[in-house]
């Protein structure tokens, strides 16, 4: 009897053992083909609302259509994203008046400014300058860089990053890891809340994570925001000045720059008047336009109302300032690579067994203009965010060849770390934390909008430990790219210089992670000490 029962159980287990399923691996040839196409000059740097957008979204749509994926509405691959484009012409000079002396800053070289308001003309007219430390107000810790100030009629001058950067205490603003308080987007929002006339951020290359020319090229020319948001009470003029001019400003105001920064890093800092008034002007022309997020999905076989959402941004910064005879910012790595990898992942899912949960492939617009496509999607989700299991974001897929590492940007927030770690081990790799957390990369791509909305995210890639050529080679390759090509016209796909195998490896691990989560019942959780939380009562409760 006993034996028979055991035998029965064994037989039962054999018969119910899942059959190995045939999954189509992601294709390197496809990735390469897509990348060559959409990073070519024909696509003119894929600026939202340009001819380049039309070509790009049509290309993505046709690919998705050819895979036979599901659409959220009959035949609909697009989600309209209304954008407001403001082209602000900066006055040639920004003048800072000290009463007896005057300082003149040159546009582009020394300062850049812009406005998010839809107005013809806006200026700072002898607005009082005040040094407001890092421009941070944190109710939890009681930190307040605007303490005791009414910012009406005033312009705040603030430092980039947060006071933890460069210190020894890992618990003080998370040490070198940039907190959200270190991001310029946060500083903008806080200046809005303070009702300041203007906000000027002092650029410093190591704390910002990029050189001045990136500030200059990113904030010169037309700027886009989401349309239909009331900004009439916001801080009117926002911008940046170079470190050199900031030092000159402090000196002329009779202040020791280094000593003032030291004070700003300590609790109890009080804002410091800069004994001067700033004047600068912007003349705006603006237009509104509709850009598009592009999406399709694989409907889950068992739990179609639970979603794994992949994101990647299709846009880049278009045509701009000529550098070495080239004005087209092709954005091959940023982010033709992610777009191509996600197309390849979508195709693989379309050719593999249907997963239990649904899998969404979302190609968002206007990431480069401030994560706008993903912001619009998370404000107006097509698939409910409370039913979204996780967001897997690709932005800049490793072009340097196969890696031993799978480096997580924004590690320590959720159980997505453990899921990534398991998938990495299966590929013979290991996970680690991003190497320059001071850059705040976690806040600089589309997963951030999902995190803010409570959806656990993964944003990871290989790039620090080359499988054959080692760590030094990987480091050099990366540093070289950032220095030469990041947001420059030279971000181009060059046959022979890039090793596609690394992209295939990362696209495959992203596929594996999505596939695993789409075929189990797991709802990855935020760690208790993370600043992010899943909102309300949801499917997973
Ligand atoms: Zn990007």
Question: How would you characterize this protein structure?
Answer:
A hairpin with a 4-residue loop joins strand 2 and strand 3 (102-106). The chain has two domains: 31-70 and 299-518, Zn peptidases (Aminopeptidase, 3-Layer(aba) Sandwich), CATH 3.40.630; 87-285, Glucose Oxidase, domain 1 (3-Layer(bba) Sandwich), CATH 3.50.30. It is α/β, with parallel strands linked by helices and 541 residues long. The chain is globular. The mean pLDDT is 92. The chain has a 16-stranded mixed sheet that branches. Strands 6-7 form a two-stranded antiparallel ribbon. Strands 14-15 form a two-stranded antiparallel sheet. Helices cover 30% and strands 25% of the residues. The protein binds zinc ion.
What small molecules accompany the polymer chains? Answer: zinc ion
Helix content: 25-40%
Number of domains: 2
Main beta sheet? 16 strands, mixed
> What would CATH call the architecture of the largest domain?
3-Layer(aba) Sandwich
Beta-strand residue percentage: 25-35%
Q: What is the CATH T-level topology of the largest domain?
A: Aminopeptidase
Q: Assign the structural class, choosing from mainly alpha, mainly beta, alpha/beta, alpha+beta, or little secondary structure.
A: alpha/beta
Task: Please provide a brief summary of the model.
By secondary structure, the chain is of the alpha/beta class.
């Amino acid at each position: 009897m006993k034996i028979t029962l055991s035998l029965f159980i064994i037989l039962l287990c054999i018969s119910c053992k899942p059959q190995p399923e045939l999954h189509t691996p992601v294709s390197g040839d496809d990735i390469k083909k897509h990348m060559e196409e959409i990073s070519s000059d024909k696509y003119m740097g894929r600026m939202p609302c340009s001819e380049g957008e039309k070509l790009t979204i049509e290309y993505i749509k046709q690919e998705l259509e050819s895979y036979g994926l599901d659409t959220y509405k009959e035949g609909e691959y697009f989600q309209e994203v209304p954008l407001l484009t403001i082209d602000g012409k900066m006055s040639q000079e920004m003048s800072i008046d000290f009463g007896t002396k005057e300082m003149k800053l040159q546009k582009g070289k020394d300062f850049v400014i812009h406005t998010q308001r839809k107005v013809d003309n806006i200026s700072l007219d002898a607005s009082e300058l005040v040094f407001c430390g890092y421009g941070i107000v944190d109710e939890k810790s009681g930190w307040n860089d605007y303490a005791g100030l009414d910012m009406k009629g005033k312009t705040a001058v603030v430092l980039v990053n947060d006071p933890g950067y460069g210190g020894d205490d890992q618990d003080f603003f998370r040490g070198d890891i940039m907190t959200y308080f270190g991001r310029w987007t946060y500083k903008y929002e806080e200046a809005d809340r303070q009702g300041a006339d203007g906000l000027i951020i002092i650029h410093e290359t190591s704390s910002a994570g990029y050189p001045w020319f990136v500030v200059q090229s990113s904030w010169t020319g037309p700027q886009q925001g989401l349309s239909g948001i009331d900004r009439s009470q916001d801080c009117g003029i926002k911008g940046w000045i170079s470190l050199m001019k900031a030092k000159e400003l402090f000196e002329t105001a009779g202040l020791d720059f280094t000593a003032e920064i030291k004070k700003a890093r300590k609790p109890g800092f009080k804002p410091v008047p800069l004994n001067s008034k700033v004047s600068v002007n912007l003349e705006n022309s603006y237009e509104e336009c509709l850009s598009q997020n592009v999406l399709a999905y694989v409907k889950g076989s068992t739990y179609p109302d639970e979603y794994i959402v992949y994101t990647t941004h299709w846009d880049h910064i278009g045509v701009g300032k000529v550098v070495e005879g080239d004005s087209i910012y092709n954005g091959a790595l940023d982010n033709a690579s992610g777009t191509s990898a996600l197309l390849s992942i979508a195709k693989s899912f379309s050719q593999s067994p249907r997963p239990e949960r649904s899998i969404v492939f979302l190609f968002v617009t206007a990431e480069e203009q401030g994560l706008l496509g993903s912001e619009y999607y998370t404000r107006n989700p097509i698939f409910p965010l409370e039913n979204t299991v996780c967001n897997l974001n690709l932005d800049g897929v490793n072009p340097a060849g196969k890696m031993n590492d799978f480096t997580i940007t924004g590690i320590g927030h959720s159980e997505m770390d453990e899921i990534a770690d398991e998938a990495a081990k299966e590929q013979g790799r290991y996970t680690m934390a991003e190497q320059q957390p001071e850059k705040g990369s976690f806040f600089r791509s589309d997963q951030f909008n999902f995190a803010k909305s409570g959806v656990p995210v993964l944003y990871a890639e290989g790039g620090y430990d080359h499988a054959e050529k080692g760590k030094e080679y990987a480091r050099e390759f990366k540093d070289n790219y950032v220095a030469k090509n990041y947001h420059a016209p030279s971000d181009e796909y060059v046959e022979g210089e890039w090793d596609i195998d690394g992209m295939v490896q990362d696209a495959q691990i992203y596929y594996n992670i999505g596939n695993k989560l789409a075929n189990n019942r797991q709802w990855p959780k935020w760690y208790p000490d993370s600043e992010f939380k899943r909102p309300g009562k949801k499917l997973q409760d």
